[in-house]
Structure formats: C-alpha cells, structure tokens
C-alpha cells in the first residue's frame, strides 16, 4: 500500500510517499480502507519536534531520540471496513467508520488496522468521510478539558484560539452544555466563531482579552505561551485555566497556582478515551458538533498540507482525501 513516511525530523520535505506492507488484522482487529485523514498541529509538532517548552527531551524519549520511531504520522481516519478478524463481532466488511488512533498514529496511509474495542465507531450518517475524519482530535481534547474543569450550565467561558481545531470544538461543546461562551480570534475569523455559537467574540488584534475584571469561570487557552498572571484579572474566584497547549512552565504553575488563591490551572496531556468516539458521533448526528474544515488536499499533497499547517493560520481542520486504485 501507499503511505507517507518520515524517517528524520525536519520540514515538510522530510515527508515522502513510499510503498509499505499492507497490514493484516489480528483476531480482534478490523482493517479500515482509509478514505480521509487529516494533518493536525500534532503532526507538525512531531515532524519537527517543535513541542511546548521543556518537553523536548520527553518527546524524543517517547517518539524517537535520533529519528522517528513510528514513521507514519496521522491521528484521525475515516473509511470503510475491508476485513475483520475472526473474533470481531461489532463490525463487518462494508461498515463506514471513523476513528482516532491518537498517539499511535499511522493514518497517513491507505489502510490501517484498529482494535474493535478501540477508539473507532460508525461514521455519523449526516457527515462525509472528510467531515468525520476532522472531528476526533479537536473534540476529544475539548471533552477531556471541559470534564476536568467541571463545566456547568451558566458558566462563563473564554476560549483563546477559538477558530482552531480544539478551539472551534470547545466553543460548540461549551455552548451545547449551556455555558456563555466568548471566543478570542483574529479579525478574519470573527464571523466563523459567531457561527459556531459563541455569544461574544473578541478580536485579539485590536482588543486585549485580559483587560476585563473577574468575568470568567473558565479560560481555555488552546494557543499556549500566556503566563498565568495575565489570566488572573479575568478569572472569577475559583476560576480555572485550561492550559491545552501547556509546556513545563504551565504544568509547574498548575502545582503552585492553588497556593496563591482559589484559582487554578489544569494542564497535562488529554486522555484518549474509547468512549469519546461514539459520543462525538452522537453529538455530530444531533447537530451539536459540526466540522470546521479549512482546506482539503489530495493524498499526494500531504507535504503541502504539512507546510500549510506549519504556518499556524489554519482554521479548524485540514483534511486529506485518500485515493485508491
């Protein structure tokens, strides 16, 4: 089968098309013929090892010290089940599915196996393959942090980076739960964030979102790099900062922040729960979660998709249609 591989860390040019063995499903696995995948900020960070501050050594130990341990990137997929293992009962050939291997990656390929009890579910009938593939990363990350924060109806939520993959999902999910949502984004994305359900929008190019006083129960920082001291003026007592793109400084701050008062920081990697994928499917089918797709690329254009994601200007997701002979 065809797959895009990277055998060294670097720019988009290190991602190359190659012939690799087609996987064979084990007894408890399904073989998915991938029809759509995505290039995410996570793919860019792993390709370049451009990780949050202080996590460089940890990333090399996890993903490969001198070269990538897993040569095929891609964390999201949608496609059709082509074959199933002898013990599989939940799926059969022909089922339309979507899934989230997450840190295991391997989706920038024509085929991938998935455990039947893993992060895979039937594709929402109202979504295309490209739309379904765009949902798991942002939505599952958002669900993790909103759960950790204990979001409740009526809470006031500020989402920084509201037009990105995680940010756009957070705006929709927080609104669905019943929060009053304010999105922070650039001028060109104001209309998009409003369309996702934000009650208020702030243009960070003209306004300082930290200038207000004690207005928010939860601040969701999907961008990273902003010190906790800047958030304190806009947090209510017992307010929470969700540091989605946290580096070591934010993680350390999450330990000492409670010592300085009732406000706190929630940081750390998002849990990849099996239950999230069917929940995301149900939310999409109910219209509570809609895909946000910035650009679409052909499979042979994955290096170009990497280059675009690396600019940091994408809105929502960048999806890739996977061609088969």
Write out key terms for the chains shown:
6-stranded parallel β-sheet, Rossmann fold, alpha/beta, ADH-like_N, 26% helix, 2 domains, Quinone Oxidoreductase, Chain A, domain 1, 7-stranded mixed β-sheet, 325 residues
What does this structure look like?
The protein has 325 residues and is α/β, with parallel strands linked by helices. The protein folds into two domains: 2-135 and 291-321, Medium-chain alcohol dehydrogenases, catalytic domain (Quinone Oxidoreductase, Chain A, domain 1); 138-266, NAD(P)-binding Rossmann-like Domain (Rossmann fold), CATH 3.40.50. It is built from ten helices and 15 strands. Strands 3, 4, 5, 6, 7, 14 and 15 form a seven-stranded mixed beta sheet that branches. It has a six-stranded parallel beta sheet with strand order 10-9-8-11-12-13. It has a two-stranded antiparallel sheet with strand order 1-2. Helix 5 links the parallel strand 8 (156-160) and strand 9 (180-185).
What overall geometry do the principal axes of the alpha carbons give? globular
CATH second-level architecture of the largest domain: Alpha-Beta Complex
- Report the mean per-residue pLDDT as an integer: 91
Taking pLDDT < 50 over at least 5 consecutive residues as the criterion, the unreliable ranges are none
Q: Helix- and strand-based class?
A: alpha/beta
At the third CATH level, what is the topology name of the largest domain? Quinone Oxidoreductase, Chain A, domain 1
Organism: Reyranella aquatilis
Protein name: NAD(P)-dependent alcohol dehydrogenase
Domain Enoyl reductase (ER): 10-320
Pfam family, one: ADH_zinc_N_2
């Amino acid at each position: 089968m065809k797959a895009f591989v990277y055998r060294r860390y670097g720019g988009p040019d290190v991602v190359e098309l190659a012939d690799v063995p087609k996987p064979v499903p084990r007894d408890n696995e399904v073989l998915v013929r991938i029809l759509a995948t995505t290039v995410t900020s996570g793919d860019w960070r792993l390709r370049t090892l451009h990780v949050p501050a202080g996590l460089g050594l940890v990333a090399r130990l996890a993903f490969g010290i001198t070269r990538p341990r897993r040569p095929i990137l891609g964390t999201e997929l949608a496609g059709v089940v082509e074959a199933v293992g002898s013990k599989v009962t939940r799926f059969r050939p022909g089922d339309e599915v979507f899934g989230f291997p997450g840190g295991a990656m391997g989706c920038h390929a024509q085929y991938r196996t998935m455990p039947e009890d893993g992060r895979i579910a039937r594709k929402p009938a109202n979504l295309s393959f490209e739309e379904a593939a765009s949902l798991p990363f942002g939505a599952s990350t958002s669900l993790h942090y909103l759960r950790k924060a204990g979001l409740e109806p009526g809470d006031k939520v500020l989402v920084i980076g509201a037009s990105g993959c995680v940010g756009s999902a957070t705006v929709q999910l927080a609104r669905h739960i019943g929060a009053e949502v304010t999105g922070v984004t650039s001028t060109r994305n104001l209309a998009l964030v409003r369309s996702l359900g934000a009650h208020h929008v702030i243009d960070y190019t003209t306004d300082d979102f930290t200038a207000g006083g004690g207005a928010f129960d939860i601040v969701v920082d999907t961008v990273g790099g902003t010190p906790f001291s800047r958030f304190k003026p806009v947090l209510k007592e017992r307010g929470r900062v969700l540091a989605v793109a946290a580096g070591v400084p934010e993680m350390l701050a999450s330990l000492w922040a409670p010592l300085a008062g009732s406000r706190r920081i929630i940081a750390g990697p998002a849990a990849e729960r099996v239950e999230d994928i069917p929940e995301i499917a149900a939310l999409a089918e109910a219209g509570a979660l809609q895909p946000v797709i910035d650009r679409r690329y052909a499979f042979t254009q994955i290096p170009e998709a990497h280059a675009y994601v690396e600019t940091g200007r994408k809105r929502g997701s960048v999806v890739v249609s996977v061609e088969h002979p």
